[in-house]
Amino acid sequence: MSTATYTVTGMTCGHCVSSVTEEVQEITGVTGVDVDLPSGKVTVTSQAPLDDARVRAAVEDAGYQLTS
Amino acid sequence: MSTATYTVTGMTCGHCVSSVTEEVQEITGVTGVDVDLPSGKVTVTSQAPLDDARVRAAVEDAGYQLTS
Predict the structure, then answer these.
(1) Number of A:B CB contacts under 8 A?
(2) SS3 A16
(3) Count: domains in chain A
(4) For residue B14, what are the domain limits?
(5) Using one digit for the tens of pLDDT, what is the confidence trace for B45-64?
(6) What span is annotated as the signal peptide, if there is one (chains A, B) (predicted)?
(7) ipTM
């Protein structure tokens, strides 16, 4: 199992949290997503280490940005 | 036709706008809802003048507050 934490900017409310969570959960191998709205920290648990580009794409699909 | 403008607090993003719009549109007689996010102004068009309590209830159902 693998855990990685990313920082997402632009989330302002619970709806934003839901949008990011849903998109990231759709990545193959992801088993858990935890979002902390005030800090923008998104912790992703997966069966194997994720390709960060996949996470970035999911976050951008939701309408937000990953900090580099 | 009747138009009334209300001020809603707590909306922070487009999802919030959608939530308020959807709830207010469900009020019987409402024909149009326009939300301006930066100001929180919600303009409601209806066939006949609305009961403000109905609008307040809809906004609160969406999770936001109407200023008095």
Answers:
(1) 13
(2) helix
(3) 1
(4) 2-66
(5) 999 999 999 999 999 999 99
(6) none
(7) 0.70
SS (H, E, C) chain B: CEEEEEEEECCCCHHHHHHHHHHHHCCCCEEEEEEECCCCEEEEEECCCCCHHHHHHHHHHHCCEECC
What CATH number has the domain bearing residue B15?
3.30.70.100
Query: Using CA atoms, how far apart are residues B55 and B44, in angstroms rounded to an integer?
Result: 9
Surface of A (30-49) touching B: CB under 8 A: none
* pLDDT tens digits, A34-49: 999 999 999 999 999 9
Residues of chain A with Cβ-Cβ distance to B19 below 8 Å are: 15
Q: Which helix (H) or strand (E) holds A23?
A: helix A14-25
Are the CB atoms for B40 and B6 separated by under 8 Å? no
Please give the structure tokens belonging to residue B14. Answer: 């487009």
Distance CA(A3)–CA(A43), nearest Å, equals: 7
- Interface probe with B: pick from A9, A11, A12, A20, most Cβ of B within 10 Å: A12
- Quote the tokens at residue B44: 């409601």
Determine the distance in angstroms separating the CA of A15 from the nearest CA of chain B, rounded to an integer. Answer: 6
